[in-house]
């Protein structure tokens, strides 16, 4: 299992260098602003189709934006795009722009194991991606305990349990959200060592998880390809602070006009189980 926090599409090297500067100049009053190079602007397609158990999954949203310079406080939204998804039966699901950069479909039909193709036309470029809707086993129960952290102090730990199916390789992505967390935290899991058994996944966050807070747990089934993509992100941003990232991680979204003008993001379709746990 591997856990990581949400990151924007920023250079790891720049982030680590900035962190070093913050620590080094912590006692100084002057603000240091680096003159950073601006990379080529690229499209960012946030295309997660997520089917929560207990819902019909009809309403789905895809967001399209652009990369921005490091010091920008806002993310440029992309309006006027054409967005649709087609399944192997030939059904077409159109996503209409509800607000700047946000495209919504209200009649999507999720089918486990079916292939779907994403089509995006934006700013004169056409993009496409193919992925299968992956199922997930439900969360059976959630438990809480006090456990010692690395400093020997007791912290709250929340554990959820589910039964891994034995008839296939399974891959999971879980996110944790709470009013005490600035960003969601994510965890990757595969069933290589516990295929067909009950799995327990633990979450704690030092002193940030408090009694009375609600911990939102979203447990997804994901494809092997998406698992590998997310694992690369973890290896880069969770590795040695002195390592140099090998470059931008490309997803499965292909530019059909110009392969070199690729977009960031990954088109994925996940069944998910969600539990809102009140921390005691």
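^ Assign residues to that structure.
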């Amino acid at each position: 299992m591997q856990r990581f926090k949400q990151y924007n599409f920023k250079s790891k090297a720049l982030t680590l260098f900035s962190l070093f500067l913050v620590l080094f100049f912590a006692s100084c009053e002057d603000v240091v602003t680096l003159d950073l190079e601006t990379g080529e602007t690229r499209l960012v397609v946030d295309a997660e189709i997520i089917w929560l158990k207990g819902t019909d999954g009809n309403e789905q949203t895809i967001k399209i934006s652009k990369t921005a310079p490091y010091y920008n406080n806002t993310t440029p939204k992309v309006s006027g795009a054409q967005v649709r998804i087609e399944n192997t039966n030939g059904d077409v699901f159109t996503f209409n722009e509800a607000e700047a950069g946000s495209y919504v479909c209200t009649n999507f039909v999720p089918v486990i194991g079916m292939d779907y193709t994403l089509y995006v036309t934006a700013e004169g470029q056409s993009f496409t991606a193919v992925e299968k809707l992956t199922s997930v086993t439900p969360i059976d129960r959630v438990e809480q305990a006090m456990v010692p952290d690395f400093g020997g102090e007791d912290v709250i730990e929340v554990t959820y349990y589910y039964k891994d199916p034995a008839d296939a390789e399974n891959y999971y992505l879980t996110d944790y959200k709470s009013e005490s967390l600035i960003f969601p935290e994510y965890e990757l899991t595969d069933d290589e060592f516990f295929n067909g058994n009950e799995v327990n996944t633990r979450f704690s966050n030092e002193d940030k998880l408090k009694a009375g807070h609600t911990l939102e747990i979203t447990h997804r089934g994901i494809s092997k390809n998406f698992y590998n993509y997310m694992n690369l992100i973890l290896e880069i941003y969770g590795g040695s602070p002195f390592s140099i990232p090998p470059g931008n991680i490309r997803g499965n979204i292909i530019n059909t006009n110009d392969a070199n003008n690729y977009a960031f993001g990954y088109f994925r379709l996940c069944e998910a189980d969600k539990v809102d746990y009140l921390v005691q």
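The radius of gyration is 20 Å.
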